[in-house]
Records
---
Amino acid sequence: MASFNGLGMHMGNLAILSTAESRSISAENPTGEKGKGAMATPDPAKSPARKLGRGWKAAPYVVIEPGEVKVLAEIAGAGAIAQIWMTPTGAWRSSILRIYWDGSPEPSVECPVGDFFACGWNKYAQVSSLAVCVNPGSAFNCYWEMPFRKRCLITMSNTADSAMILFYQINYVLTEVPTDAAYFHAQFRRVHPLPYKEVYTIVDGITGRGQYVGTYMAWGVHNSGWWGEGEIKFFMDGDAEFPTICGTGTEDYFCGSYNFDVGKENGGYREFTTPYAGLPQVIRPDGLYASQQRFGMYRWHIADPIRFKRDLRVTIQALGWLGDPRKGAEFLPLQDDIASVAYWYQTLPAAKFPPLPSPDYLRIV
């Protein structure tokens, strides 16, 4: 990915000096100000640091009450988010992450926290990629570059009925941002179940100039048999009925092949996680109440961003088999539980996102 003035460091430029100023926001320094970390006074009755005093891990997390919208970061000036780490408690679909750029009233990122970090089924799965890492036991890490010119606002909403605890750290730089740097966006969608013969829309209504950089999907299968024959399609810059880019199958788009299946004798579906693509999560039926197969997949277009000049729409088909594909079977449109996150950069202003589904609709059961 592009870097500027000290952001996006890699092994080839770590020795290059920069005028960028490093800052970090956490519960121990909620404003990110220079020299303002670890200033909290321990609670004399409850804090484990009550005998140690200030500076001894007195405020390492925040509590977000039911219905509360908690401001995690509010940064004035120009700069860029470099890394986000957090480990939220509770149901991840009930915790909504939102990010606003340069004073916009509408979020450019609006997503349940687990799905944003490529872990959509409220269960841990190891993710080892360039853009997102999920590490034991529930450590979410994001490395997407997120430049801003005037202001950055990051919030977390708790839509659950109980309080959540959030440890978090947001690392960023204060620096000049070049005129050709675009703004990061991420949009969540879910359809459950997908209506028969309806194509699933990952994202539509994108207007402006930019590049599409990633897809995460949490796919719950309702039928027996293989479920991933559907093609992903990118309609850009005025495409109508037919897209400019059309893939050859779901597992192909996520950089796998032949059903992600290594054969029954080798364990069937095989999880994998790589820098650019992965199937890090396969949730298998247990023979009792966990009756459906569920999959988590990501594909980052870091080496091959999909450029658009005016507009973009991305869809994928839910397609299985009616009968044996080795004996002349037909495709079967599926009615699955599908959720997705689309990631892209674009100019502002951006089109308003569709309303996020209700907490009941988002719930994973």
---
Amino acid sequence: MTLVILALVSFVQVFALGFQSRNVNHGNYGWAAGTSFFIGISQAAVWRRITGPDAGATEALVYALAGSIAIVSAMAVHQRFIRKAAA
């Protein structure tokens, strides 16, 4: 897995976790259930790479940076598209 793919998978993982959290907090059952699939797939891919024999500080840094970007993105997307639709 290249660092770019790791960053993308990490982004999906943290985005889905943040998006699911917002949906749970706002009672959006369908959206919360749907994000579980993406969380499971991305967690398996990320942890396989992060804990692999060749993993190191670079992989951890890529994971952390992608996660920071993803959580803010999830909050913004949910607020703009989901929360307004439910209101």
